[in-house]
Write a structure and sequence with these properties.
Arc Repressor Mutant, subunit A, 106 residues, 5 helices, 2 strands, 8% strand
């Protein structure tokens, strides 16, 4: 049985609540920078942590999100569909948080 089938069978058993917010953040940053190292720097974690979170997310979703092409990362079809939605969502969250935080007084 191929890895894709194993991932899909495993994902079918996991509820969507099992999707890790940290894994989504790791994927979104990696997709935006197209770099594990840059994503790790942004999120203040080790590149190996980013890699681990990406593997967990791929297993949970049942599809590959990124692939290596030579020395570069490339989004898969699943990754291309997910990345823009996550970026938009995280921007909206940060905007909402910014609107309720007390503003610095001069």
């Amino acid at each position: 049985m191929g890895r894709g089938n194993e991932m899909n069978e495993w994902a079918a058993k996991k509820p969507m609540s099992a999707v890790s917010l940290n894994a989504l953040r790791a994927f979104e940053a990696t997709a935006r920078h197209m770099s594990l190292k840059a994503a790790a720097f942004e999120l203040n974690v080790a590149p190996s942590t980013i890699s681990h979170r990406l593997r967990l997310l791929e297993m949970t979703l049942g599809c590959r999100l990124l692939r290596r092409m030579g020395g570069k990362l490339e989004l898969t079809e699943c990754g291309e569909r997910l990345a823009p939605a996550l970026t938009t969502g995280f921007v909206q969250i940060m905007d909402a948080v910014g609107k309720i935080r007390p503003q610095d007084k001069p």
